[in-house]
Amino acid sequence: MIKFFQKLGPGLLFAGAAIGVSHLVQSTKAGANFGFGLLWALLLINLIKYPFFQFGPRYATATGESLLDGYKKLGKNVLKIYALLTFATMFTIQTAVTIVTAGIASSLFGAHISMVIWTIIILSICFGLLLVGKYALLDKMMKIIIIILSVSTLFAVFTAFYNSETSLDWTQILPKTDAEIIFLIAFMGWMPAPLDISIWHSLWAIQKKKELKVFSPKTALIDFNIGYLGTIVLGIGFLMLGGLVMFGTGKTFSNNGSEFSIQLIQMYTQNLGDWSYIIIGLAALTTMFSTTLTTLDASPRAMNKTMELILEKPLKNGYTSWLILLFIGTIFIFFFFLSEMGTLIKIATILSFLTAPFYAIMNYLLICSKHTPKPWKPSKIMHILSILGILFLIGFNIWYLSIL
């Protein structure tokens, strides 16, 4: 059992990156605004995105190279498009997740330390951990974080069910107004995560394979499935928490990062009891810290690899340089957009959904190409699910653009 747990890694890093804004913010808001009515959307988008996320570790461990190496084989222009999309969104995404993390830390440990200081502290801790410990420390830390996150969140859900005095309404809802549809797009855009995380996952899988020496495609897929199932369970958990605790109260969330965090924790503790403050706070903080840490590692790792492939030469201290740039850029954006956390999250999530077809098509083309060993190409079921998923993502994008 211990040996099996040691083999886990990239799948848990995927879960750590995925279980963040999509769960704590978007899923909770979905429950608060619609009760259990958007459970269908959560389950559907997880099913649709599953093949494209799975192709990351499948391709990486079957070929020994990342999806970015595969993208280059599909054409350098694919890599250039990826680099442009990543550079356009990496700072916004990092700022959005860091603001929420800083807000929760401020709520838990006292507002006498400003949001600016909390943001710098959190980014500095993550920066230091990645600079000193690199992947090995990230891999070990994430196992502990995911256990704490899972236990505290599930405990909060069971407590909310136990304390609930209202009958549960499982009626599913299809949003009708433009505002509701835009929320649905944002909700599904980052649920369980943006599709470009499949690229991060492939890079982590390569790194894991270097450390373990033996990290087979079969082990990688088991690792991925455990992480993916975890994101689904916790996504449902946060949606239920929002539905059980906040639905029907008439209260709305602030777009300000610190105010949102305070509202979130206070609403839970008011309904569950003051004793639950630490449990809820711990679940919220570990959720967002894991996302802040993994995204701060992944974007520089991916951009460095991309530039090396485009320039066709290794870059000295490339990862560290991108890490510093992301650190500075996040603080810069933070100073100008703190009061617009909700807008930042909305922009990031919508961009993630609009770019999803690109990543879905590229991943599918690559896994079906001659570059993937025959034994690890998709099954007929995965082919069908992939094609239906691509059509859905394209159709949903057209639907969204038509209401703008």
N- to C-terminal separation?
52 Å
Examine the secondary-structure arrangement and name the CATH architecture: Up-down Bundle
- The chain-level structural class is mainly alpha
Within the CATH hierarchy, at the fold level, what is the topology?
Answer: Amino acid/polyamine transporter I
What is the fold's blueprint, element by element?
Blueprint: H1 2-7, H2 10-18, H3 21-34, H4 39-63, H5 67-74, H6 76-109, H7 115-163, H8 178-189, H9 197-212, H10 217-245, H11 257-272, H12 277-311, H13 318-337, H14 341-368, H15 380-402
3D structure, described in words:
This protein has 404 residues and is mainly α. It has a single domain (2-402), classed as Amino acid/polyamine transporter I. It is built from 15 helices and no strands. It has helices spanning 2-7, 10-18, 21-34, 39-63, 67-74, 76-109, 115-163, 178-189, 197-212, 217-245, 257-272, 277-311, 318-337, 341-368, 380-402. The longest helix has 49 residues, at 115-163. The chain is globular. The chain starts with a helix and ends with a helix. The model has no long low-confidence stretch (mean pLDDT 83).
